Amino acid sequence: MSGMLGLIVSGRLVQTDFQLVGENKFLITIPDADSINHVVVFLTGTVPFIDGMGGAVYFSWPDPNAPPNWQFLGYVSNNKPSAIFKISNLKKNHEFENNNLGIFGATSTTISHVAQIGISVEPLSILEQQAAVATANATNSFVDFAQKMITSFLNYVSSFSVTQAQMTANPTENFVPLSSIQGWYETFERRLAQNPNFWKA
Asked: What InterPro entries does this protein map onto (predicted)?
């Protein structure tokens, strides 16, 4: 499968030097990864995947004190021969727990000082399921963030609430009834529960 896969980092030469590190597992390094935002993984067109197979794409930040901690990005296949992945927002190794520590043959003594992209050749049915789970997790994470953010906002605003009797007249200030903010909060939560992507419309 030599030359089957390629990697593009913006502003750099194309890399095709994926190394076979295990059965159906390939690895490539990315020096100076802290300065990049996106990577593109693609099939070069020289050799296709076997029918029904594709390549799961994983990323690992460099960590001089720990073995690679692999994060699933997505996949490429004969029907989807390239994919762009944003890596600038991925967590560093010490920020999360992951059960993909040894997926590319890393042992507890294997330390990487460069970022790495790993490709694991697997059945498409498994890859599609992994991608669906990753998408669902990302959606759930966004919903959790949005709910915590609006709850924090409501709590913050509520901490300044006063009754009309307590209000001091100030012609330079505008006042919004707390009931209006609570109504907005309830509407936002209801719409978020119905469709987490409603705000994109």
From this structure: Hikeshi-like_C, Hikeshi-like_N, OPI10
